[in-house]
Amino acid sequence: MKRILVTGGAGFVGSHLCERLLNEGNDVICMDNYFTGQKRNILHLLDNPYFELVRHDVTSPFFVEVDEIYNLACPASPVHYQYNPIKTVKTSVMGAINMLGLAKRIKAKVLQASTSEVYGDPEIHPQVESYWGNVNPIGQRSCYDEGKRCAETLFVNYHQQNNVRIKIIRIFNTYGPRMHPADGRVVSNFIVQALQGQDITIYGNGMQTRSFQYVDDLIEGMIRLMNTGDDFTGPVNVGNPGEFTMIELAEKVIKLTGAKSNLIFKPLPADDPMQRKPDITLAKKVLNWEPKVNLDEGLVRTIEYFKTIV
Length: 310
Ligand code: NAD
Ligand code: UDP
Hints:
This protein has 310 residues and is α/β, with parallel strands linked by helices. The protein has nine helices and 13 strands. Residues 7-8, 10-14, 32-37, 57-59, 72-76, 91, 113, 115, 171, 173-174 line the site of nicotinamide-adenine-dinucleotide.
């Protein structure tokens, strides 16, 4: 049995990770400040004696004895990370320093939930890990993008300077049950709008692309990365290379929900990336991983979830 800390464990991805780690027989500590996470996401785990819940903000130091740390604490939706941009930077940067300091002290392995946003609005397509990215350092997204980039820097520096065992995963757009209905991300917005018979809001002309990964595939990739040998630190892309425009996504959601919603067009947010698609050659090679759930299948499962809550 391993003792594992998951920061941001009451969030969308974190709750699935806690559940999977418990199912594999681990002792799990879930730390969260509930900024975007909810107790409801982990209610079903509270009866498990090997699950502990701690209300704590990752920007403050935290001391606990564990073997592994998954550092997920950070709002992920543009609406939420732009709500208090200074706090977003602090969460990424001070959170990384606190978790790396802890890992150094207790000799734990630590995994950073990084993001495809480190590539910004990419000029290389699909994105490979060796690409340095195209990020506006003073734009609306920079609190998140640069915070996550700085966290990657800190992880590599703690590894090189202090021999901390690190893993960096660059997560591409992920969706699934337990996304917050008011999260503001595109998959949850479109599904909620379709189920409530509202118009579907397309930002810009809807020709921008994203690659959507079902949450179970991400969790599998995260755990495989944590279990790689100490010489492999990443960063490694984990995402589904299927690439869709927002119009195509809206049409799928309308078809799968049977909704009669119309598409309405709203202004494109500043610095909204035009395209995004992972090159997963490295994940296939090192993690022996590739996504298993295609978009239609994942959307059906996600729609079933949202039908129970909206
Ligand atoms: P989420 O917003 O559902 O979860 C984030 C969790 O972190 C929430 O429970 C929130 O309350 C918690 N949190 C935020 N600030 C905190 C703080 N200061 N202290 C303690 N807890 C804090 O988002 P998610 O989609 O589950 O994302 C989880 C992680 O994965 C994030 O680090 C995100 O950047 C990364 N990521 C997610 C995606 C995606 O598509 N879901 C893509 C790339 C990267
Ligand atoms: N988007 C949209 N309608 C919405 C929400 C988002 O058209 O109601 C677009 C958004 O402009 C972006 C894409 O969908 O181009 C993905 O947005 P999301 O916030 O999910 O993720 P990110 O931009 O961080 O990849």
